[in-house]
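Worked example 2:
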Amino acid sequence: MNGTNLFKIALKALTNNKMRAFLTMLGIIIGVASVITMIAIGQGSKKSIQAQISEMGSNMIMIHPGGDRRGGVRRDPSEMQTLKLENYQTLRNETSFLSGISPVVASSGQLICGNNNYPSSVSGVGLDYLDIRQLKVAEGSMFTATDITVSAKVCVIGKTIVDNLFPDGSDPLGRIIRFNQVPFKVVGVLESKGYNSMGQDQDDIVLAPYTTVMKRLLAQTYLQSIFASALSEDMTDYATEEISGILRREHKLKESDEDDFTIRSQQELSTMLNTTTDLMTTLLACIAGISLVVGGIGIMNIMYVSVTERTREIGLRMSVGARGIDILAQFLIEAVLISITGGIIGVFMGCAASWAVKAIAQWPVYIQPWSVALSFAVCTVTGIFFGWYPARKAANLDPIDALRYE
């Protein structure tokens, strides 16, 4: 018996029991749709996190003072004064893997303009800070190198600051805002960036020359941190090693001494978040995949019923020359047809469910082509795996006993 005839017989057997065949497919449909939707949600979250990290500067490197041990007690890194302006100058002049570098100091307090006030902080930075943090000036301009040299009382502010200090919609450029009784002239307004993946408002920002913040607000000579950006994301590790070597030399640390500074990169954060997201995606996909196993058991169950109901038919086919392999192929084709048909419907339902989640819940969703292919392949294998044993049982029936079966 050729394959075409076997396919026609299997298709006819399924069409004779449409409702039973559909209910059997339902487990596969739900399983495939669930897997595709769960993976789409997980991958969408991953893409969203990667995009937000990229907006913050995917090749950004942050250098902070490290904790020190004095008398057996480890001191708070914030109390350390190990990062100096000289370290910043040396790194700027000697590093070969950095595209930009900026000192960072910050002071918290109350911003006041007329009758409006807002609690925030002023960050003292260098000219490269905008490029490092992927910030852009929407109105006005960034302060200049001359402003840094003379410790000018000028600043660039974010949209959140504008909304709270200038709620009437007036132009903030050229206006004076006070921070802890120190007046600052607004010379620029930054483009809005909204909230990042950690829920931080990226528009709640005030940038001023680092010399101004150090002298007029903090009265200190050391830096709280240094921000830098590698030439590319691939060169982040090389840049980190180079920075570490220079700082250890500048701080005159011996080989046995621990670093008195800490270096972190966005690449580390990205790797950590991606690992967590991948783990959650895998967990969601495994939970959804359980329904595929349940659907496979449903196929096996219904095929057992089909073999029992059609025992006399099997005996008749064998008596007129059908071989065991033909009977095996017939029932296996039925199982695979149920599985594949359910898989195709499940793929469409999974894509539709993913788009519905994106439209209704406003969650980031990204349908991976491999997840569709994998779900379809798994449901096909499920049909073969769970359909094999009932088909094998039908093929091994004795023709005479089958014809006598009531």
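The mean pLDDT is 82. The chain has two domains: 3-52+272-404, 97-232.
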